[in-house]
Amino acid sequence: MTPEEAMDRIDIMISDDKLWEHYTQDGKIAFQNALKASREAIKKKVPAKPVHDGVENQCPQCGNYVSETRENIAWVQYEVIEFDGSEVFRDKYCSECGQAIDWSDEE
After folding, report:
1. Tens of pLDDT along the chain (107 residues)?
2. Which of 44, 79, 82, 81 is nearest to 64 (CA)?
3. How far from the centroid of its chain's Cα atoms is residue 31's Cα?
4. CA–CA gap between residue 105 and residue 51 (Å, rounded)
5. Of these four, 14, 18, 45, 70, which has the most CB atoms within 10 Å of its CB?
C-alpha cells in the first residue's frame, strides 16, 4: 500500500457514518482525531518540494527554513550531492515538523 492509498483509506474511515454508529460521541471524536493524526504523520513522509521565497527554501508544511549548505552538520539528516565540483548537503527532513523534503528539481 502506498502512502497515498493509506491516506485515502483513512479519509474514507473518517467520513463513514456507519462505522461510527456504535461509538459514543466522545469515542468517535477521539478515534477520528487519532486517524487524522495518523494521516498527517503519513503525509509528512511523502517528500514535498521546498517553497523558495526568493532568498531561502522553506518547508511546504510549516514554513521553517530548510537548508542547502556546503557544511556537514552532524545532527541533521541530509543527502550529499555534487555541485560545481564541491559537495552540497541538503536537509532530508524539516527539523521543525519532520516533513520529508524533495530536492529533485533543485539540481
Report:
1. 999 999 999 999 999 999 999 999 999 999 999 999 999 999 999 999 999 888 888 999 898 888 765 454 444 455 555 555 666 667 888 888 989 989 887 54
2. 44
3. 22
4. 12
5. 14
